Amino acid sequence: MIRGIYETHLQVSQLERSIQFYESLGLVIDSISHRRKIAFFVFNKHTEHETMLGLWQVSVGETVNKRHIAFNVSLDHVRMAKEWLAARGIETKSVFGRDGSEPIVHANDPAAAIYFDDPDGNELEFYARIPGEPKVVDSTKFLSEWNEDQSS
């Protein structure tokens, strides 16, 4: 029945700053209302996989409710994400006891991922499934460590 998520929304404190940030990730704005302080980005427009990200500016003094979004990307993109993000002035972050120096592996899926925040602290993730069987592990591995284990 459910094939995916059609849309998701994030609160932001400064709409224009957030638009610039998400455009730096390669997203293309679909519509904007400066009066209502909302902007929408659409992925895969006019396909059965169309997805929308809405940004909603909170009122001055109101707290931004932070959320998490994982963007589905290719494994090659996850591998190069740290450098790609750095070129845009975006730092990767530590997760699951590992620093953001390289992608980590979610062994239960398995999938490679790297994490970073938007200007308001919403947690973003580039996520790509990787070959292999799901595993139960005691600790999170870097992708390089996972690959070494797979080849031995």
Outline the structure in words.
There is one protein chain. With 152 residues, this protein is α+β, with helices and mostly antiparallel strands. The protein has two domains: 1-65, Roll (2,3-Dihydroxybiphenyl 1,2-Dioxygenase, domain 1); 66-152, 2,3-Dihydroxybiphenyl 1,2-Dioxygenase, domain 1, CATH 3.10.180. It is 20% helix and 32% strand. It contains three helices and nine strands. The protein has helices at 15-24, 75-86, 143-151, and strands at residues 7-12, 29-33, 38-43, 51-57, 68-72, 104-106, 111-117, 123-129, 141-142. The strands form two sheets. It has a five-stranded mixed beta sheet. A four-stranded mixed beta sheet has the order 1-4-3-2, covered by helices on one side. β7 and β8 (123-129) form a beta hairpin. The radius of gyration is 17 Å and the shape is globular. The termini are far apart. The mean pLDDT is 93.
Give a quick summary of the entry:
With 152 residues, the protein is of the alpha+beta class. It is built from three helices and nine strands. The longest helix is centred in the middle third of the chain and has 12 residues.
Number of domains: 2
Tell me, rounded to a whole number, the average pLDDT.
93
Number of helices: 3
Q: Which of globular, elongated, flat, extended, rod-shaped describes the shape?
A: globular
The CATH topology of the largest domain: 2,3-Dihydroxybiphenyl 1,2-Dioxygenase, domain 1
What structural category arises from helix and sheet content? alpha+beta
How much helicity do the residues have?
A: 10-25%
